[in-house]
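Supplementary notes for students who missed Thursday's class. We covered one full example, reproduced here. Read the sequence, then the structure, then the short commentary at the end.
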Amino acid sequence: MGIYEKYVVPKIIEAACGVGPIAKQRAKVVPMAEGRVLEIGIGTGHNLEFYDPSKIEKVIGLDPSTESWKIAGERAKNLPFDVEFIGLPGEEIPLEANSVDTVMMTFSLCTIPGTQQALEGMRRVLRPGGRLIFCEHGAAPDAAVRKWQDRINPVWKPVFGGCHINREIPRLIEEGGFGIEKMDSMFLPKTIKIAGFNYWGTAVAR
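Structure (token representation):
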């Protein structure tokens, strides 16, 4: 990992992922989490304030960036539930099978290199009857916007830490072995359209 990816990208993500429209999306989905939660790509901890403490036993934040952990750790200090940070030392999520009640994934699937392997790992650690809660930006239904997403994506990725702006989120989730229970989507207000089409909802393992 280079200096840019280690030190600069976390600060860019910290600023970009905390803006108003994105915070409103987090507020819609994060309170649905319950029990023992695995948060995929916890980053700098923007979701932490939105968890409902009465429903949470523990949040396990998975993220490869230890620089982001430092910021998230400050956010976690005074929370009334435990927060643990873990990395990804190998290809598999370092948790036992059927060990979490909720998998939380917000604005993370866009940066994961091996999406199917990652989703299969989430399905493995999720207990029977548990839920994947997701909120992700991705491919727009508008052909003109999608055209620009495809054009700009190769430049966008290295600047924003591997983020893809044109991933087909519902398809990827289903190909990862999940069935989508419910899902909404829209262009977020006050957000550039190429990065502003948002999908959010819940899914269960098939």
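Commentary. The chain has one domain: 3-47+54-195. The chain has a mean pLDDT of 91. If anything here is unclear, bring it to office hours.
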